[in-house]
Amino acid sequence: MRNRAVRSDKYSLTPEQADAFGAELDAIRERVIADLGERDTTYIRKVIKAQRTLEVGGRALLFGGIFPPFWLAGTAMLGIAKILDNMEIGHNIMHGQYDWTGDPALSSKTFEWDNACPSDQWRHSHNYMHHTYTNIVDMDRDIGYGVLRMSEDQRWSPYYLGNPVYAFLLMVLFQYGVALHEVETERIRAGEISVADKRDILRGIWQKTKKQTLKDYVAFPLLAGPFAPWVFAGNMTANLMRNVWSYMIIFCGHFPEGTQEFSIEETKSESRGQWYFRQLLGSANLTGGKWFHILSGNLSFQIEHHLFPDIPAHRHAEISVEVREICERYGLPYNTGPLPKQFATVVRKILRLALPDRKPTSRNDEMPHAA
């Protein structure tokens, strides 16, 4: 692919342009990495402190949940705490964004989050598989999470008539959908592997899920005594808040109108610049204010996150200005929009891909590679 142009459905770069594009993005990354310091550690520790305060306060208020204002406030606080733990803290720490600090509490290798998915499994399925093979059909398991059809390059079958139902269930049970990533359910359905082949993976998921279930639905309700039903309901609602929010942010960063998927053949022998090109075309941003970005884990800057997954996410807002300017100079898209608009296009895609393709799909403008 070194001597041929990098092309997608609508956009292209010559090999020389791809190299120059990559060099400009590498320069941004190197500059930010060199600038990391107290500003970054202060930020993440403040977020961790806020998350813990919200969790403790929320759980305390739920103990008086028989009074509606207490239940509503406690549930909201606990739900926000769970969102922060998963999105801005857990996701970003486990990406290694703070490994440079040497602080064990910020280590990607030892951090464990409030989620049914074991962190060691997530680091493989997300950090390695997803971020290496972003939007490559049959390689990136984030495309459909093993249950959905999210690309026309996925062969249609009658099973996908249930696409809207599967999508809804994945949304409300999202932490369990993430947990099942490493099980590779689509390969089990296809007969490529058996459930027995995933025995160790399933054991890890069971241990983590059991711990989370006992914490939220047994231990804390029992501690509340006669107020157990209100604590149980509050914990369930907080988990639902976290699941729905995470699903919306993540799907709007990967699957709204304008994002593209790729085949394995299209992406062989990629250069660094060509890898950046694929990350850009497979991602979309969300517009919003400061707290929206924090609660999204700054995945509202999904483009920058895919380009620079190991840079502290709170830096993505400032980086985005440069990235957008570079894209404009190279004639490349910078997909961004408000959450309602982007999510509406995701829903339309889920509904459309539930049905058979109107005509056979083909890629006339593939990203070719060297023989």
UniProtKB/TrEMBL annotation:
Keyword Nuclease appears in the UniProt entry: no
Any single GO BP term: lipid metabolic process
Residue ranges of every copy of the Fatty acid desaturase domain listed in the record: 70-336
InterPro entries cross-referenced by the UniProt entry: FA_desaturase_dom, Fatty_acid_desaturase
GO cellular component, one term: membrane
Keywords noted in UniProt: Membrane, Transmembrane, Transmembrane helix
Any Pfam family hit: FA_desaturase
GO molecular function: oxidoreductase activity, acting on paired donors, with oxidation of a pair of donors resulting in the reduction of molecular oxygen to two molecules of water
TM annotation in the entry: 60-84, 159-179
Protein name: Fatty acid desaturase
